[in-house]
Amino acid sequence: MLAExxxxxxGRFGRVEPRRAAGQFVTGLLSELEVKTCWQxxxxxxxxxxxxxxxxxxxxxxxxxAVRDDLRxxxxxxxxxxxxxxxxxxxxxxxxxxxxxxxxxxxxxxxxRIENSQVGVFLGYAGADGHTLIDRRVYLPASWxxxxxxxxxxxxxxxxxxxxxxxxxAEMITAALKAGVPAGWVxxxxxxxxxxTFRAGLRExxxxxxxxVSRSHLVPLDGGKTRIRADRVAADxxxxxxxxxSAGAGSKGPRFYDWAWLDDVCTDADPDxxxxxxxxxxxxxxxxxxxxxRCWTPRPATLAQIVRxxxxxxxxxxxxxxxxxxxxxxxxxxxxxxxxxxFTTLALAALAVLAICAADIADQDHADNGLIKLxxxxxxxxxxxxxxxxxxxxxxxxxxxxxxxxxxxxxxxAHYTRRLNLELQP
Length: 426
Description:
Pfam families: DDE_5 (PF13546). This protein is α+β, with helices and mostly antiparallel strands. Among the domains are: 190-310, no CATH class; 392-424. The protein has 16 helices and 12 strands. It has helices spanning 2-8, 16-29, 38-45, 51-58, 64-79, 142-145, 148-153, 165-178, 190-193, 196-204, 230-235, 303-312, 314-327, 337-364, 376-386, 394-424; strands at residues 85-94, 104-108, 113-126, 131-138, 185-188, 208-213, 218-221, 226-229, 243-250, 253-263, 276-283, 290-297. Strand 3 (113-126) and strand 4 (131-138) form a beta hairpin. Helix 2 (16-29) crosses helix 4 (51-58) and helix 14 crosses helix 15. The radius of gyration is 24 Å and the shape is globular.
């Protein structure tokens, strides 16, 4: 599978050197390296210097978007289904300084608070028997797009303008559908569900959605004549309105919740679009905590279908966890626009290896042998035990130890010199 994933985009490299480096890069991301930057990946690959890996991310000639398209086609060929779900969400990486593309003090769910961070919006694909990430966009705050000199220094193309996170998500969904990705649904959290423009764009493309909204979201009733907070709607529901259903299997068994479905409501926008608007409410059976969803389908749907999509949204959270813990999605040390897209695309390729292997093994292993199915974590361990053989040559390791310390010493001298010069200026 590693060879198949690398082979699907090998033709995007005009020269053998970057093609070979890309294969070593993805293999290194799957390795057991604790930190997966160009230095560590180069040492893992047996290089004497990090130049080839750095050149791959910065100066080499290749199109990261074209590689993404090839990778997406491979994933869809394995997981594709007419009722597949496109899930969108964002994730942040904590950063220092101000020069890394898109970085500023902003809220990130990674830290749960406002931090100096970089945020990326991602598109996940959950199909017949597996899920993974298929697209990515770096979020540029207005503080960046309003400062064209800053953008130019980070390599941001001149035609890139400010776009909200829902707008970036809509771009990725539109691109996927235009590329022929089979999907029947979109799922997202309330940062996207609260956007009327985002919901309208999905209806124009006639794709169903189950989008979380905030408890204070105003629900239009009676054709939009009345607007009531979502939590007030839930408070007025009788006990008979709730049904207990599973949102899918979790690590500890079926995820049961109580659900209330108000069919044919929320019709303030485009009431004649030919689809069915509804409000879905989920209640935690233990804590009583409520969650709310605006739903739309181009044709009649059942509660079971709506609940399934609501549950599948969590697949993108699982993909984020696997991408960060297994293939170093958040470990890049790049500052420029192209470099971020290149590193992230290669990380998605490494993640696809794990996701497809897990699905293939699950399809083949139907025996009740007292073992759980192989997880992406365990598959990566087996890849390292059986395929990736770390270089143990002592001379190679000592060379890299000396190279790192020498480079760090030069960098420290440069920083000290700059700091002293700034202190001596009048």
